[in-house]
Amino acid sequence: MRFWYETVAIMVGRIDIKKVILCLAAVLFLAPNWVGDARAERGRAAAGVGNPYGFSVWGLTSKTVQQIKAAGVGWIRYQRDWQTIEPERGHFHWTELDKVVQIANQAGLKVSFPLQDAPNWAKTQVCDGKRLFAGPQQMAAYAGAVATRYDGKHGHGKIDAFEVGNEEYDNYWGGYWENSLPCRQPKYYGPVLAAAARAIRAANPAALVGFQGMWWLDLGHFRSFYEWIYNHGYGNDFDFANFHYYPCWQSPSSDHPNPSFDQVWRTIHDVMAAHDQADKPIWVTEFGWNINSTNQNPSCQVSPAKQSNYLRQVLERARRSGVMRRVFWYTIGMGHDGMSLTQDGKPVPAYYTLQSYARKYPGWSISSWIGNSFSGDAE
Length: 379
Prior knowledge:
This protein is 40% helix and 14% strand. It has helices at residues 2-14, 17-30, 38-47, 62-70, 82-85, 95-106, 136-149, 177-180, 190-203, 219-231, 261-274, 304-321, 349-360; strands at residues 53-57, 75-78, 110-115, 123-127, 130-134, 161-164, 208-210, 241-245, 282-287, 324-330, 342-343, 346-347. Strand 4 (123-127) and strand 5 form a beta hairpin.
């Protein structure tokens, strides 16, 4: 024992004790993130600091890519319906997806791709007398095909994250609540999520698997949906939680008539924490406010100044949350669409707000989450 005491004494005499203490503290704080299997590795990637900003888009042009890059944004979420890619079983139309992935990869943008809107032939789950949802087997085959093609090893580029579903598993409306609510239940989603996750991880273990973008802004719905997923054994089938935030004209700091932005992510986080997954990250893969009625609800229209302010509020709340890792504004490069941060190719004020914020906070470090409280909710 004396040998060890003397050795330590010599080491301490040669090393700055403050640096030793800081290093030990860092090890103790970060050690849980350095241990684990492939699932933990994916979790670390999902939770990684990196560039947290993204745009949800339906296409890419060279000009749009330039504007995305100039804004300091590092991700795109490209939406293309499954029914346009595989209209007939086994017959794939890859041209447009190939093109967008190639453009994004060449520009250094990371790509998230939702596996959304199945073709009719793949919809084997019936609700309200209609074929509404893909079956697990059908989704697994499609997910595996896409994950294999875009694993970065087959000459077609790389997709970094896959979201299993978009909004279709919790937005059905059949005309009345009594026939709509039964079709917004997680029993239709859990088996599909698990099947897709297995297929994606088998084809491309480095890719992230994300939850669907929960659409319905109802806290009880968020809570019960995620609780069902965990209680039925699907809690390890996604690397990041996911929601969309469209509160119409409402400020993200307000809790009426819709939940506030903080209330939504905290509800999801509380469920995950109760199931020992407090460190699992959350992404918001669509959010926005419209400044005109093109393709959007005219009753939800806000001024450009409010759009800019609400965008800033979401960025601040997400950055300071400690669990939000990615934020994707909907959308850019979409002509006169009311939510596009470019109108007819020209940036709107909210674009410059995002650009300024991304320059100030190019990554969300751990230190930015500790001891911070949100301020600046003025509208």
